[in-house]
Every structure is written in structure tokens, then in C-alpha cells.
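Pilot study result, target chain (76 residues):
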Amino acid sequence: MKCFECGGEMIPIRGMVRMTKKDGALLIFRGIPLSQCRQCGEQYISGEWSEKIGNMMKHEKDLTPQEILSVPVIAV
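Predicted structure:
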């Protein structure tokens, strides 16, 4: 697979996917299989994993977080 942005070589990695809930809260899914471009760093997620994350978002109340982060928010 070639990168859609620059045509570079894609390599398999495990990374993070950030999703925003309807109330604006942030959820981070770690360890997701992604493809990342060696040249520009663009990342792609498979349709299969997009669907899995979508299903997890629908049942987000049933998920148990492994970690809770504090994130600074800056208003401008």
C-alpha cells in the first residue's frame, strides 16, 4: 500500500486513535493496528478497525478505562 498523501511506503504499527464523544469528552484507544507512511507520517486505519471502534463508541459506558489522563485546555 502506498500513502495517499505523498506516495510513500506504508508500514504496520500499533498506535492511538482519538475520538470525541457527543458531549465533547475525549476517548483514546491505544494499541490499534494502523498503517503509517515512512515518508510523511500520515496514518490510516482499516475499515475493520474503524467499525470496531465505532461499535465500542456506541457502548462506551460498558468500557473500563485502563488510565485516565489530565489534559490542559487553552482557550484563545
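One observation from the pilot: The first strand starts at residue 10 and ends at 20. A full batch analysis is planned for the follow-on phase.
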